[in-house]
Amino acid sequence: MNATAFGAPRVATPIFADRAAAYIAAHAFDRPTLVVSRDRVAMQYEQLQSGLGRAAIHYAMRANPAPEVIETLVSMGAGFEVMSRRDIELCLSRGADPDTMCFGNTLKCASDIAFAYAAGIRLFAADCSDELHKIAVHAPGVRVLVQVLVENPMADMPPSRSFGCRPSDVPELMDIARDLGLVTYGLSFLGGSQIRDSADWYPVLDQIVPVWHAVREAGHDVQLLNIGGGFPAFYGKSIRSPRAYAADVMAAVEARFADVAQIMATPGRALVAEAGHIVAEVVTVCRKSENDLHRWVGLNIGHSSGLAETDGEAIRYPLVTDHDGTDTGPCVLSGPTSEASDVMYQKRPVKLPLGLARGDRVVIRNAGAYTVNTSWAGSDFIPPLDVIVI
Amino acid sequence: MNATAFGAPRVATPIFADRAAAYIAAHAFDRPTLVVSRDRVAMQYEQLQSGLGRAAIHYAMRANPAPEVIETLVSMGAGFEVMSRRDIELCLSRGADPDTMCFGNTLKCASDIAFAYAAGIRLFAADCSDELHKIAVHAPGVRVLVQVLVENPMADMPPSRSFGCRPSDVPELMDIARDLGLVTYGLSFLGGSQIRDSADWYPVLDQIVPVWHAVREAGHDVQLLNIGGGFPAFYGKSIRSPRAYAADVMAAVEARFADVAQIMATPGRALVAEAGHIVAEVVTVCRKSENDLHRWVGLNIGHSSGLAETDGEAIRYPLVTDHDGTDTGPCVLSGPTSEASDVMYQKRPVKLPLGLARGDRVVIRNAGAYTVNTSWAGSDFIPPLDVIVI
């Protein structure tokens, strides 16, 4: 848990002028718009890959499925973690090789499995026998990764209890897979999202060590360990550089799994979050009463129109306004729907300049991940978030 | 709180064969589909209007903005509560008269206010002075309803603290509105959503009485009381018929506001929820381990693809399968994304037949409200919920 264990102080990723920010500064927008810089995506990939060394990156494309982002990562040599037929079609249309795709969803539709198999994908995740049976029927003989549940309360967004099997059930699932004619190829896990401190990977990896050994002892010649994602983005709290962070994680992996032939990782957020910013506008500023301790700032974007990750307030986007540097005060933010579900940061208000007024621009920084695909469709309120990739 | 106070036992709305259910039974669907019956929408409207008597219904169209639903309600003579420019355009395109529209969003974009005014809308809600200033500039001289916060812990989904002003601030806001040249036309409030017991309206209405009197004493000739929505739909727990429920509410309104010239209500859920059902399919059934007390049932629809109201588990849809009548056991439901956010009813599992298997159909009943417009756009996983209005 102690960052100094790495012998180096942790430094914040600076909020420097970047291409997306420069584009935003130079343009007018008549609706909420995410501007993503391909250069920054490429830079993040390069840094992360350099730190990860021999581990192969399979981009968790649900973080940002913009076609131009996929294209950029294909050109850099990335692999992909796909979750549906649509993901596969998108990757193929941008030139990705099916050999670089892992079907990571543990709740796959049978028709999607068949589609993936026909497209040439040969690596599938599973966490229960029903899933293995589906794979065996619709993608006979492919390689499977059994997904294991791990605990990681230190992640900003801890891993779900929903996807993955209990460690003690892995050997039996491996046996079932082999009996079904599948290749028991390895293990995967997800240590949560936004694991800010690389030291928090140690106890997670420690949970996998006995599982790996149990599987090998049960006679399965497993080759691949998928360490999942969880690589952090900068939202105001200091994190290490992607390279240093990934190198720390890989050192911890090698210390435990040096003899594992293949390591793969599925970062999403770390590749795209800092590459994009959302331009929004203040719709209303009001104090509900003279005694209110904070203002209510209504924006033209909210929880249901792209900022779903404000849920639980784990992700707190850095906000930039033209009034920065002047006196600030606490605000509750609200989206444009007049619905309770669209209120953001009610538990811990954000600080914004006192001079902020209706019509002012608010830039929601580092919002390139989990925003494009989390705005509600067919909303009667607002069109989906606009996306510009430069 | 005691339903017997009405002198009549409460009876459950029966799950009878309806047109949407019949259509579903007779057709095959290759993706999650909401089937809505116009007849049932019309029937709900008729019943509710009959109970509401002189109160005018303004449909909260965010509950289901399907164009055919709007058209049906226009033909029945309903008014509309609109929340955005898109709502207004949709209503106008289906023949609604701008005189029947109330702009109920308290966080309106200035350009939407101007659009509404140009379209002929003359009734606007507001809950703070900034909103009043915007209205005065972009819709000069219109009628305004000041929205008041109320408490109603008894609603299945209690009212948000976010939209509405404190009761003590209403007279000052009315003064500001008058000074800005607006017509101080009335009050509005929202007692929450899914208020199952009509008796739970009494304490809410009691909160409004002193506000109404204070406003009149301050010299404002208010004419209209908007009692909002909260009229319930049947999700398995017994509710009264729409007519009986609405008549109870109106009796309580008249007992307190007999001298108020105009009453209006903005039901949404009560008009459309029971008119629609979603056809879904089982993608995976598994027990995470032998010791698991319940099964995990993966569906091809989840929290982020239409079932956002499963949040907090307040709304528990009745589920119908072809195995009904056989032995059941507890299940956690999951949508098709392998994301923690897509898990439903984890706190209180639902009971489903033990024979339920992959490929089986699950009908999610009474899902006509807040489903069409709560599926995420641009999801890499799944296309938005399909909608068929018959």
SSE order and pairing:
2 copies of one chain form a homodimer.
Chain A: H1 19-26, E1 33-36, H2 38-52, E2 56-60, H3 67-76, E3 79-82, H4 85-93, E4 101-103, H5 110-119, E5 123-126, H6 129-138, E6 143-148, H7 170-179, E7 183-189, H8 201-217, E8 224-226, H9 242-257, E9 262-265, H10 269-272, E10 276-286, E11 295-299, E12 319-321, E13 328-334, E14 343-344, E15 350-353, E16 361-364, E17 386-389
Parallel strand pairs in A: 1-17, 2-3, 2-9, 3-4, 5-6, 6-7, 7-8, 8-9, 11-13
Antiparallel strand pairs in A: 1-10, 10-11, 10-16, 12-16, 13-14, 13-15
Helix pairs in contact in A: 2-3, 2-9, 8-9
The first-level CATH class name of the largest domain in chain A = Alpha Beta
Oligomer description? homodimer
Q: Which two chains touch over the largest interface?
A: A-B, 73 and 74 residues
Give the overall shape of chain A, derived from the CA principal axes.
elongated
CATH architecture identity of the largest domain in chain A = Alpha-Beta Barrel
The SSE string of chain A, one letter per element, is HEHEHEHEHEHEHEHEHEHEEEEEEEE
- Number of domains as seen in the coordinates of chain A: 2
Q: What is the SS-derived class of chain A?
A: alpha/beta
